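Hello everyone,

My group is preparing for a crystallization screen and wants a predicted model to guide construct design. The compound we'll soak is adenosine-5'-triphosphate. Before spending weeks at the bench, it would help to have a computed complex in hand. I've included the protein sequence and the ligand's SMILES below. Output in C-alpha cell form would be ideal because that's what our pipeline reads.
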Amino acid sequence: MTVITSHNLTKQYGDKKALDQLTLTINENKIIGIIGRNGAGKTTLLKTCAGYIKPTSGELHVWGQQPFDNLQVLSNVIFIDEEVTYDETLKLKDILALGKIYYARWDEAFAKKLLHYFDLNVKQKYDKLSRGMKTQFNIIMGLSSRSPLTIFDEPTLGLDAAFRKEFYHILLNDYMKHPRTMMISSHMLHEMENLLEEIVLIHDGKLVMHDPIDVFQNYGVMLNGKNDQLLPFVENRQVLHQQPLGLSSIVGIKNDLTEEDLHYLNEHHIDISPMHSEDVCVYLTANGKVGGFDGYQ
Ligand SMILES: Nc1ncnc2c1ncn2[C@@H]1O[C@H](COP(=O)(O)OP(=O)(O)OP(=O)(O)O)[C@@H](O)[C@H]1O
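Reply:
Good plan to model first. Here are the C-alpha cells for the complex, ready for your pipeline.
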C-alpha cells in the first residue's frame, strides 16, 4: 500500500524554493533514509508529510488525504526532532500518559522499559533533563508510539556514540516486530545504512534519487591509476569526482562497468574500489564541483 504520494510538490519561502516540484511515492512498511546537504529541504519535506507545513503548490497525499491540519492523518503520524518540547511542569510519566491519548498503538510498557534501560527516571521533570537526555526521551516517545508513519528528523543529533548504536539496534528490532513506515533524515549515513531499505536524496528541494539502498551503495566506483591510461578511459563516462595526484588520478565514475571495461582496468593496473554511500551523496549534489575546494592556490 502507498503511504505518501507527491506530485510537483513545492514549498516556497519568498524567493527560496525549499521543495521544488518534488514527485515521490513512499510505500508502507519501509525504513527510508532522507538524505541531502544542509538546506536541501529534508526538514521541509518531512514536516510537510507530517501535516505541519502547507505546500505552496503541487499535490501531496498521505494515505490518500491532504495532510496539512488533517486530524485523521496527524493521529497516525509522529514527528520527532530536536525541537520537540513539553510543558515545563510535566514529569516524564505525565508525558507517557499523554502517549496513550494521542497514539492508538502506544506501548507504555515498552516506553517504560526503554526509560529504565537508559536510566531516565519517570519522576523527573522533562524540563530538567540535559539536552541529550531530552533527545533520548523524544526518541523513546517516537518508538513507543508505533505510529504507522514515524518520522525522525536528525534523531541522533548530539547523542553519544553508545546511545546512537543502541538506538539503531532497538529501532530495527522494534520495526521487525511492528512494521511501520519510518522516514529518518540524517547526516550520519554511514552509521544508518544497515537500517535503511530505501534512500531519498534531495538537493535544492529537488529529488535526485529514490532507490533501494543497494542501488545507492553500488552507484559508483573509484578508479586509481596513471593518467595516460585512466583519463582516456573515463572520457565519455559520468565522472562524479576527480582528484589529480601528479601523474596519477583518482576518479569516481558511475558504476556501469562491463566485462570489457574490467579487463581494460586490470590490464592497465587501474585499481577499482567501491564508492562509499556518503561520497555518492556528496558527489551527486556537488553542483558540478568534481574536484573539491582548491582556493589556496
Ligand atoms: N520557515 C522558513 N522560512 C524561510 N526559509 C526557510 C524556512 N524553512 C526552511 N527554509 C529554507 O528552506 C531551505 C530548506 O530548509 P530545510 O530546513 O528543509 O533543509 P534541511 O535539508 O533540513 O537542512 P539541514 O540539513 O541543514 O537541517 C533552506 O534554504 C532554508 O533556509
